[in-house]
Design a protein that fits this description.
By secondary structure, this protein is mostly helical. It has helices spanning about 1-10, 15-35, 70-90, 100-115, 125-150, 150-160, 160-165, 175-185, 185-210, 215-230, 240-285, 290-295, 305-315, 320-335, 345-350, and strands spanning about 95, 120-125.
Length: about 350
Amino acid sequence: MANRSNTEATEPLLSGSEDLEAQKFRRQLKKRRFRRARSAPCNDVDPQDTNGNIPIPRSDSIFGNIHPSFRKVAIYLVVYIGVGAIVFYLVGNQIKGLKTDGVLDAVYFTIVTMTTVGYGDIVPNSNLTKLLACAFVFTGMALVGLILGKAADYLVEKQEFLLVKALHMHQNVGQREILKEVEVNKTRYKFLLAFFLLLIMIIAGTVFLIMVEKLEFVDAFYCVCSTLTTLGYGDKSFSTEAGRIFAVFWILAGTISLAQVFLYIAELNTESRQKKIVKWVLSKKMTNLDLEAADIDDDGTVGAAEFVVYKLKEMGKISQEDISLLMQEFEELDVDQNGTLSISDLALAQSS
């Protein structure tokens, strides 16, 4: 009898069909909470391991489950290079310079234009090709920006866990510690990975120019640096057919890697300033003025939620506009206007 009373006490106030709806909603809510934990982990991590304790990254390969945004960028890139190759192949007789193969030269010229390297070994030689080059350089720069924002960042994030695991190879570090390390130093590890990829591009380009293009070490390294920084003096470039095949892939990957390194350096600088602000906010003493400002409902006291919101505002992590929007959503969900949200409120709000 006591068990029955306890069970009834936990049931929603609504009865009949509304009870069933509320119970169904409760089950859905539990599922949502299970899928999205407090820290809202990304979808590349399983909710829990076999013991039901800590999340463990999936063992899928980089391309196992390709993110939709990555696929979209890849399609844009293929279309851009394809259209550029066709266009510049058709007007190949209006382009002058050191040529090897018609199709290869068209793809090579498209990549060099897109990345703004502009060696000058192949250049437009008519008004039509000059206008086409202007159009392709602007669309190419926009596409490179899209790649930086989507695809390159996605590939780097995929390898963060492996990098942290490698750095702690000789230490007895569990999955939980590794995931925590990734989350805390996310930008730092992104920078290290991007920098590592850049070093690979520099070494690969230098070795290739020495072995295939027969350049001296200094000239090869000079060509690599002028290419990756899109300086492109043009006195040293890829002149052989094999060299231009390599350049089609290497120039695109190398210039994006360098841009990623500079991007993460800027992020590290911003993150460092943000940490200093957080440290200052947490170390400064609370005054009466702070207490008054934190009292959102003007009841003369500051609760835990009000204190957290006030501190987040001081840290610059949330604005008053954000708070107003959230309060507006809360009031819309609080159907009975009692200042709290319940399963009944949510069920009624969704049904209305």
